[in-house]
Amino acid sequence: MSFLSATLSRVKPSPTIAMTAKAAEMKAAGRDVIGLSAGEPDFDTPENIKAAAVRAIADGKTKYTAPDGIAELKQAICAKFLRDNGLSYEPAQVSVGTGGKQTLYNALMATLNPGDEVIIPAPYWVSYPDMVLLAGGTPVSVETRLENAFKLTPEQLEAAITPRTKWFVFNSPSNPTGAGYSRDELRALTDVLMRHDHVRVMSDDMYEHLAYDGFRFCTPAQVEPALYDRTLTCNGVSKAYAMTGWRIGYAAGPADLIAAMRKVQSQSTSNPCSISQWAAVEALNGPQEFLEANNAVFRRRRDLVVSMLSEIDGITCPVPEGAFYVYPSIAGLIGRTSPAGTRIDSDEAFATALLEEAGVAVVFGAAFGLSPNFRVSYATSDAALTEACTRIQRFCAALT
Length: 400
Description:
Blueprint: H1 15-28, E1 34-35, H2 47-58, H3 71-85, E2 94-97, H4 100-111, E3 117-122, H5 127-134, E4 138-143, H6 154-160, E5 165-171, H7 183-194, E6 200-204, H8 220-223, E7 231-236, E8 249-252, H9 255-266, H10 274-285, H11 290-310, E9 325-326, H12 347-358, E10 360-361, E11 363-364, E12 374-377, H13 382-397
Parallel strand pairs: 1-10, 3-4, 3-5, 5-6, 6-7
Antiparallel strand pairs: 2-8, 7-8, 9-12, 11-12
Helix pairs in contact: 2-10, 3-10, 4-5, 4-9, 11-13
InterPro entries: Aminotransferase_I/II_large, AspAT/PAT-like, NHTrfase_class1_PyrdxlP-BS, PyrdxlP-dep_Trfase, PyrdxlP-dep_Trfase_major, PyrdxlP-dep_Trfase_small
Cofactor: pyridoxal 5'-phosphate
Enzyme class: transferase
């Protein structure tokens, strides 16, 4: 009899974390490595948010809180949803977790039974399928196409829905592609969902504020109000507010679902860090002007990376609408050989050779459920991006 759980054997470690760790090990050993694998802004947390955390410590706000968040943060979240998305929630409809990942995981743990299916468009954030598996459900991956800008079509969604479908996971702008759905594109998907009232929607809006070139973010319950009672709208402060390490995510939805998520959280981690919660109150209630300035920087970096990667023979790099990732195709490089003798027979082989031979860390597309591609995070300095893309250009040019 194995000591470890059989459930654990169904999942794998996060490839993004693994690639980032490998790059860090190589750096520690003295190698010159540029990391483009982590989805983390290089901006510092804004000063007003840090000051709010310091005040919370000084005021002794360091004790246990309610399991799924303080009342002040839940009120700030309700105000945010109304202000930004036109969605009206009460505090009893809000759950605060230790990062966005926990809120998603809590919802899946609270709702999935063996045989329940969860539709996940691919490429997807690496954790979605494994969280479904841990919760006892069955992930149903639906591959999108580069020709459709990596966006799910209504026909694909319709074909994927079965009587066992419990959730449809929606992420826009997307990790890993940066693809954002317009209101009309999302409306076409919600029209499908309206025909299948047993399907719930889990909308991961973590990159809501990272949108470029006039792209206007929208979320499913906003586009189709009739889906309000079937939708869990998830978000957090990690990306837009440069608060990845503070670990605050949140979600709003039907009160009975939120209560079930609270039960899961009360028996796992209990409350998120009290100090981080007070910082998040300031993030949501405080000045928002810096978001536009940060977006201008991200847009410039996106254009730099897309331009340099598009110069490479064998790589196709679409222009994303949001987030801080690009997801180029390396279909034209498959079958070639690297200067060190590595045959590029997959995107994993490409990413491994690129790291070992050129000192650039990216994440291979198979980790996100769609190959042959790789993900670049451009949430780092212009100088680092320029040097990294130059190395990728040289590496690809040397393939034979």
